[in-house]
User: Which sequence fits this backbone?
């Protein structure tokens, strides 16, 4: 701890996993994440762990299924097409309530696509991805430092809730070099306690079974209800996000991962020109910071989503905001936006906001909300705060009175939808 | 009164769901007896497949994991490399091992994973209702080749032991049968040896057992046993294909 090391994102992630106590890795090469298995191939034997270059992604994830069932901290990583192949195995792990950590260093798609950075696997990641009703915890880093520190977070969450947890990155985060400081105590796997479900030497205890099936219809439903409760608990407790300059913002950009860095640079340009622009960055993509966005929409009437996919991420933002504010989209589905481009978009949207001034005024007066929230003013956000939500209480969602007035007004003005 | 025979400790005392005359139950018992006799039951982890033996996780009295169709050898690899002190076996049918899981089978053998595979060859897909397997004989009827397997349409049967024999990592390969008592005893010996190899750290061992599926073959159990002896054995000859005692493995 305390020491800053210059590392590639992929290597920082691998080293972070090893320090977090990972002792098993299996994977199959695919660009742009090859540094991860390469690093693990020498690093894991050094600490008494096992590395296997599997014959396929399908085999790799099933090796993880076996390893995770023994309670060992295990990891696999891949990129888009490889993750698609791993989805069956991830679903089995979710069905068997096994914890493990995996990373998707996303590339362009669909199909073979290209190896450029992309955010095109958003839906696949945050909606479970494989067959059946399940979720995976998804963390989206935006720096090499976070690439190095999030594996620990993933292992902790995965084990706390007994489910897969993943890092959703992209080729830029995987390949770029930045300083990383590992901000956690290195984990010695030998000091970790038996969990009561792991397979291994029985000596005296009864047998244990790990399985994902229950052929009795009603029984399977019961288990799925239990899992659903667990997911709701995670949504209430484990949301992570970051806000910048949102306190006085007329316009808030919503972006994650690499897009959020570009958006951040564009926000600075805007602030330099006197435009009141803020940034909201979800760190957990599932659980999604829906409540926090909804709360922000009480004050801020205009959002601009910047994503490197065809409007996948914006859907979650719009669901969260639920008509309380305008959500514009700047999508680059097969390219990386330049900060100047995003700034130009900000100017465009900003002009629109100013033109539609009266609507903003009307919206500022008290009106029925579709998402019920406490009336008190939202806390001003610190300049840069990695905020952990304080176990917010579940709020009832009332959908009976939508913002009819405001929608009508917006239609009259044109321009807003 | 002297008790001459009892249920092995390696099996949970419960009714199995297998059809009358099915080979799975016999092989289950042989695996369980082998665990008992070698004293490894409490450190054994078994991998149950998708197929008629999906409930093997309930039947064997040791730690068990149930895997996706065909992936047994990869799961066994993950367990063995994580906990080398465990004895790990994967129990698989022919659809599971020779079709969807062929890649995992070949590569775990090539890596010489120190695991034991019990491979039940009944020349058909049992669980899904009698479709053609990669091991279905030429001319044999199945629900997806109702006129009998035609090589022009369906290709030729795969002989898994012969296919794996050239692999240096395949330390022990033997094909046996359970169609009569004498062969059941031979099969037991082979299974025990496959476990012993793992205990001794020798590497990949697989026993292919010619088995029966009277239900999907549309036969009586007795005719099923005859089918194995008369039709399967000529195509799938019994014997040791590779063994650690033999220089270079193959015989
Ligand atoms: C990915 C996947 N594909 C297909 C199936 C359906 N399936 C279940 S069992 C089976 C065939 C099993 O045959 P075999 O391995 O020969 O075992 P047997 O039932 O004959 O003992 C198939 C195709 C599945 N469960 N999963
Ligand atoms: S269908 Fe065939 S393999 Fe399955 S239990 Fe019945 S006899 Fe055995």
Assistant:
């Amino acid at each position: 701890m305390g020491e800053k090391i210059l590392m590639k994102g992929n290597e920082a992630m691998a080293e972070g996993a090893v320090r977090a106590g990972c002792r098993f890795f299996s994977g199959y090469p695919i660009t742009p994440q090859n540094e991860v298995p390469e690093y693990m191939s020498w690093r894991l034997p050094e600490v008494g762990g096992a590395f296997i270059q599997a014959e396929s992604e399908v085999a790799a994830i099933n090796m993880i299924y076996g390893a995770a069932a023994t309670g060992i901290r295990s990891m696999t990583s891949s990129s888009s097409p490889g993750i698609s192949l791993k989805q069956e195995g991830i679903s089995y792990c979710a069905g068997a309530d096994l914890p493990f950590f995996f990373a998707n260093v996303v590339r362009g798609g669909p199909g073979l696509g290209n190896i450029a950075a992309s955010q095109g696997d958003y839906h696949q990641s945050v909606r479970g991805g494989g067959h059946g009703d399940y979720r995976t915890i998804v963390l989206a880093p935006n720096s090499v430092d976070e690439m190095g520190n999030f594996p620990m977070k993933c292992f902790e969450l995965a084990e706390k809730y007994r489910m897969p947890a993943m890092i959703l990155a992209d080729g830029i985060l995987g390949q770029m070099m930045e300083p990383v400081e590992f901000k956690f105590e290195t984990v010695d796997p030998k000091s970790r306690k038996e969990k009561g479900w792991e397979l291994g030497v029985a000596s005296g205890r009864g047998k244990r079974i790990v399985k994902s099936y229950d052929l009795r219809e009603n029984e399977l439903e019961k288990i799925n209800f239990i899992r659903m409760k667990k997911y709701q608990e995670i949504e209430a407790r484990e949301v992570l996000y970051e806000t910048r300059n949102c306190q006085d913002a007329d316009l808030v950009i919503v972006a994650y991962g690499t897009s959020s860095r570009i958006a951040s640079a564009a926000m600075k340009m805007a602030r330099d020109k006197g435009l009141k622009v803020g940034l909201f960055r979800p760190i957990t993509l599932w659980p999604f910071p829906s409540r926090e966005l909804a709360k922000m929409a009480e004050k801020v009437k205009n959002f601009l989503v910047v994503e490197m996919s065809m409007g996948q991420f914006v859907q979650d933002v719009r669901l969260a905001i639920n008509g309380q504010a305008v959500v514009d989209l700047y999508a680059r589905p097969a390219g990386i936006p330049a900060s100047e481009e995003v700034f130009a978009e900000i100017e465009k949207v900003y002009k629109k906001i100013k033109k539609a001034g009266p609507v903003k005024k009307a919206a500022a007066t008290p009106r029925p909300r579709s998402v019920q929230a406490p009336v008190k003013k939202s806390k001003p956000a610190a300049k840069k705060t990695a905020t952990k939500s304080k176990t917010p209480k579940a709020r009832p969602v009332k959908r009976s009175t939508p913002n009819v007035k405001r929608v009508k007004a917006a239609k009259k003005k044109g321009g807003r939808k | 009164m002297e008790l001459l025979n009892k249920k092995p400790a390696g099996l949970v005392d419960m009714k199995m769901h297998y059809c009358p005359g099915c080979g799975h139950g016999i092989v289950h018992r042989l695996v369980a007896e082998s665990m008992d006799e070698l004293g490894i039951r409490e450190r054994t982890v078994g991998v149950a497949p998708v197929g008629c033996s999906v409930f093997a996780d309930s039947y064997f009295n040791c730690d068990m994991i149930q895997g996706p169709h065909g992936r047994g050898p990869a799961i066994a690899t993950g367990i063995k490399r994580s906990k080398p002190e465990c004895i790990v076996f994967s129990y698989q049918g022919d659809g599971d091992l020779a079709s969807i899981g062929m890649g995992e089978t070949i590569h775990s053998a090539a890596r010489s994973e120190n695991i034991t595979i019990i491979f039940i060859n009944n020349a058909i897909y049992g669980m899904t209702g009698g479709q053609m397997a990669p091991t279905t004989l030429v001319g044999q009827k199945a629900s997806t080749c109702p006129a009998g397997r035609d090589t022009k349409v369906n290709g030729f049967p795969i002989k898994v032991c012969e296919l794996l024999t050239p692999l240096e990592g395949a330390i022990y390969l033997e094909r046996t049968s359970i169609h009569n008592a004498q062969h059941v005893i031979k099969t037991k010996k082979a299974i025990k040896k496959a476990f012993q190899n793992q205990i001794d750290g020798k590497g990949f061992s697989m026993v292919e057992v010619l088995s029966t599926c009277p239900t999907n073959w549309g036969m009586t159990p007795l005719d099923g046993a005859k089918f194995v002896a008369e039709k399967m054995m000529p195509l799938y000859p019994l014997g040791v294909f590779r063994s650690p005692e033999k220089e270079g493995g193959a015989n």
Notes: The two ends of chain A are 49 Å apart (CA to CA). Chain A touches chain B through 39 residues (CB under 8 Å). Residues 293 and 321 of chain A are 6 Å apart (CA to CA). DSSP finds 14 helices and 17 strands in chain A.
